[in-house]
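Thread amino acids onto this structure.
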């Protein structure tokens, strides 16, 4: 669980930070639109979309690494259960 925590945190925090990075520049972009400053609006929209992509990319990395690690640990647990059953059968003589 401790090793999976980093991947889980990245998978959950990425979209949150991406959304914050999207909403923060949207305010100045809307002000630029209302005043007719299209260059300012375009720049702020570019920042907004870029932070969304970065947040989603971070979440994807966290999700994929979490899935891979979880599969590794599940395989290890299955192997350990198999060995424990073999040792238990040997000990009981069955």
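Threaded sequence (94 positions):
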């Amino acid at each position: 669980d401790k090793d999976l925590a980093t991947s889980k945190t990245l998978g959950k925090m990425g979209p949150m930070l991406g959304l914050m990075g999207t909403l923060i520049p949207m305010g100045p972009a809307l002000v630029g639109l209302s005043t007719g400053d299209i260059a300012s609006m375009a720049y702020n929209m570019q920042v907004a979309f870029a932070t969304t992509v970065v947040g989603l990319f971070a979440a994807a990395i966290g999700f994929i690494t979490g899935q891979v690690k979880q599969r590794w640990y599940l395989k290890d647990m299955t192997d350990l259960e198999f060995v424990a059953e073999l040792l238990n059968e040997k000990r009981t003589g069955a």
